[in-house]
Specification:
heterodimer; A: 175 residues; alpha+beta; Alpha-Beta Plaits; four-stranded antiparallel beta sheet; B: 583 residues; alpha/beta; Rossmann fold; six-stranded parallel beta sheet; 24 helices; 39% helix; binds thiamine diphosphate; binds magnesium ion
Chain lengths: 175, 583
């Protein structure tokens, strides 16, 4: 997993900015494991978390090429050991009365939530790092996973440090 | 003052000092063509939109200013694709303005709709679809700024028809604020000192001078630097002329069809001082074998070029003109203190070695005294006639390589060609654009191939109509010569679809049809006199056809993917090598 790197990227919230980024990755044959995008406290700025697979030289190229995009404001590589990483996962598990309580127990151990219940199924919401979500899936597998969905990774650095530190621009909350 | 978005386009271009725009009208851009009648710049009506963008490129390369083209939506915008990709590869500052269907129709597959910002995203430095008339001046100003600053490149602004028709309150200021775009201009002081130390310690240093020097207009600084420390200079295809080829420190051109001494100088060097160059595969050959003993200083305004293909010992991000200025300042200071000698490498032996390489491995051509005209002789003859004042613009193929090898360029912007993309059809429109830029006093000579010429010669009409007197020389070898050369060498001379009948079309009749003088040279003994006659005509476009020996091949040559050490000087060497391998 040493080729796995987390990039946190601030971009101007303009039409097409995601296409530019995704297109650049595709065109230069770079490998994206996951990409998550959402608003920040500044309406004009979005934040992306991109997990890439790349060795050191290629990683440097990825960061430099991203930086060339006019709408990219800032890029920070988050060291895995110094970042809080989360993914969100929803899993719909087959859950007849006979196995239901076991499934709920597993969910509790993972501090996952039951967000929907039907006669024959339970939907579980779990958040965590990819390893934890994999482990949860492994345990649920034998009961029958009807469907599942998982978000890309989002991450922040640990401690007080923030991506805007030392930047010429500040996030401004415009509501 | 309330004006339309279309008027705002005109006023923005005027405010940016644009004097010439290359374009072609149509539905979506019609609103802009109305106020253009009164606009304070010249509009050159092309015959194909590809011509407009190549003209903008030629204009930009010849003048150092941004070249501007303007066309309508859909097919017109897609006709720009080749030129935009070309401009991106060769870092040419171009502003392309395209009409778009109305914002209300976008996404509906409307008549002449194409997703132009989507299509051109990977082939522009930046682009923008403008959603409101208010945004027009900012969008154009920002595009202009991005096109010409940092590493120059093409920027496209796509403007829907309703945005052109809407009104806005005109306001203009020169400031540009792009928080995500702040190119580094000055080099890092510590890196600059490290670079100077590496140079001082080197025994076989070479300046690897690239097209970035031409874009930055850094010829004087380069020369001062090279002379100060007595550093040999290799200039790439994109940099020809940035350093005078006639200078005793000039080594020549590197790469696939480079000069033998330049290729060897890299291979034997212990330090490459890389200035605005990018370790392109046509220069390096097999990357692992390129300049195997050399440490590398790399100066580039685009940080992504540094370390992309070749690991670097001293990276310096910055405008190469500014960085060279910084380096010269350090050297000046040492000079004032009398300590420059400590920073000056002893290159005497090395320069002697390079001089030997140059002496022992000149370019060769067997030109009989009468009869058949060799293409190399034709190109040298063109140079002898037009000399150092002219700007030379090449197409793509054998003629391009000979024009790059054989003409001793002495100044930046004297040589214009399509290097990175290798776009056939570039020369005719680029030469017209260059001439529109440099004006009456500087001759512009296109050196084109018969294949290339037929891709874009419809622009002869543009040159005639707008009175742009370019001399178009066609090196007519009756073949897609460069492709034929590869088929001959690497496909056992199995020629596959490379013949172009020399009389098709009859270029003299073609000149006639366009109402311009046409000259044909078929024998070497007629070359000089005919070229002199063509040169005497300076007030209108001229077509010169040079019928040359179709069998000539460009050498030296490094086969594609091979190591630079495997450089060939003749076809016989190659055939012998193949025979030896088969035995
Ligand atoms: C648009 C385009 N199509 C194809 C090629 C491939 N190509 C490279 S050189 C060449 C032959 C050029 O022929 P000509 O203009 O006659 O020049 P010559 O090599 O004969 O001097 C071709 C087909 C290209 N570079 N550009
Ligand atoms: Mg030809």
């Amino acid at each position: 997993m040493s080729d796995r790197h987390i990039l946190s990227v601030l971009v101007e919230n303009r039409p097409g900015v995601l296409t530019r980024i995704a297109g650049m990755f595709a065109r230069r044959n770079y490998n994206i494991h996951s990409l998550a995008v959402g608003p920040t406290d500044d309406l004009k700025i979005s934040r992306l978390t991109i997990v890439v697979g790349a060795e050191a030289v290629q990683l440097e190229q990825i960061i430099k090429q991203l930086n060339k995009l006019v709408h990219v404001l800032k890029i920070l590589e988050l060291e895995e050991s110094e970042a809080v990483e989360r993914e969100m996962q929803l899993v719909k598990v087959t859950a007849p009365a006979s196995t239901r309580s076991q499934i709920i127990e597993i969910a509790e151990v993972f501090r996952a939530k039951i967000v929907d219940v039907d006669h024959d199924s339970i939907t579980i919401e779990a958040a965590g790092n990819p390893g934890k979500l994999e482990a949860l899936l492994d345990l649920l597998e034998p009961y029958g996973i009807r469907e599942m969905v998982r978000s890309g990774t989002i991450a922040l650095s640990r401690g007080t440090r923030a991506i805007t530190d030392g930047s010429k621009f500040r996030m401004r909350r415009v509501v | 003052m309330r004006i339309t978005g279309a008027q705002a386009v005109m006023k923005s271009l005027e405010a940016l000092g644009v004097d010439t725009v290359f374009g072609y009208p149509g539905g979506a851009i019609l609103p802009a063509y109305d106020p253009m009648i009164e606009a304070g710049f010249e509009h050159v009506l092309v015959r194909h939109e590809q011509g407009a963008v190549h003209m903008a490129e030629g204009y930009a390369q010849a003048t150092g200013r941004v070249g501007v083209c303007i066309v309508t939506s859909g097919p017109a915008a897609t006709n720009l694709v080749t030129g935009l990709a070309d401009a991106l590869m060769d870092s040419v500052p171009v502003l392309a303005i395209t009409g778009q269907v109305a914002t209300t129709a976008i996404g509906s597959d409307a008549f002449q709709e194409a997703d132009v910002t989507g299509i051109t995203m990977p082939i522009t430095k930046h682009n923008e679809l403008v959603y409101s008339a208010e945004r027009v001046p900012e969008a154009i100003k920002e595009a202009f700024h991005v096109a010409r600053s940092g590493r120059p490149g093409p920027v496209l602004v796509d403007i829907p028809k309703d945005v052109l028709n809407d009104t806005m309150e005109w306001a203009w200021n020169d400031d540009v604020d792009l928080p995500g775009y702040r190119p580094t201009v000055r080099g890092h002081g510590k890196m600059i000192r490290e670079a100077i130390d590496l140079v001082a310690a080197a025994e076989r240093p070479v300046i690897y001078a690239g097209g970035g020097l031409a874009r930055a207009g850094a010829g004087d600084e380069l020369r001062a630097f090279a002379e100060r420390l007595q550093l040999p200079v290799v200039t790439t295809l994109m940099a020809r002329g940035v350093f005078p080829e006639t200078h005793e420190l000039a080594v020549g051109m590197p790469g696939m069809h480079g000069h033998y001494a330049a290729v060897k100088a890299f291979q034997e060097s212990d330090l490459l001082i890389t200035l605005g160059a990018r370790f392109d595969d046509r220069v390096t050959g097999k990357l692992d074998d390129f300049a195997p003993h050399a440490r590398v200083v790399h100066v580039d305004v685009d940080p992504a070029e540094i370390g992309k293909n070749r690991a670097v010992d001293v990276p310096i991000v910055g405008d190469v003109k500014v960085v060279l200025g910084q380096i010269l300042k350090v050297l000046d200071d040492k000079d004032a203190k009398g300590t420059l000698a400590a920073l000056t490498p002893d290159t005497a032996d090395w320069r002697r070695r390079i001089a030997e390489l140059k002496r022992d491995h000149p370019l060769r051509v067997d030109q009989p005294e009468t009869g058949v005209l060799k293409p190399q002789t034709a190109i040298t003859g063109i140079y002898q006639e037009w000399g150092d004042d002219a700007v030379y613009v090449a197409g793509v193929g054998q003629h391009q390589m000979w024009a790059a090898q054989l003409i001793p360029y002495t100044r930046a912007r004297q040589w214009i060609n399509s290097g990175g993309l290798g776009t056939m059809g570039f020369a005719v429109p680029a030469a017209i654009g260059a001439k529109a830029g440099v004006g009456r006093d500087t001759p512009v000579v296109a050196i084109d191939g018969d294949g290339c010429f037929q891709m874009t010669f419809q622009e002869l009409a543009t040159a005639v109509q707008h009175d742009i007197p370019v001399t178009f020389c066609v090196i007519n070898n009756g073949y897609l010569g460069m492709v034929r050369q590869w088929q001959h060498l690497f496909y056992d001379d199995r020629l596959s679809h490379v013949a172009l009948p020399q009389d098709l079309p009859d270029l003299m009749k073609l000149a006639d049809a366009y109402g311009i003088p046409g000259f044909r040279v078929e024998a070497v003994e007629d070359l000089a006199t005919t070229l002199t006659k063509a040169h005497a005509i300076t007030d209108q476009p001229v077509l010169v056809e040079l019928r040359v020996d179709p069998d000539e091949m460009v050498f030296p040559m490094i086969p594609s993917g091979a190591s630079n050490d495997e450089i060939l000087e003749t076809a016989d060497e190659w055939h012998a090598r193949v025979a030896a391998q088969q035995a």
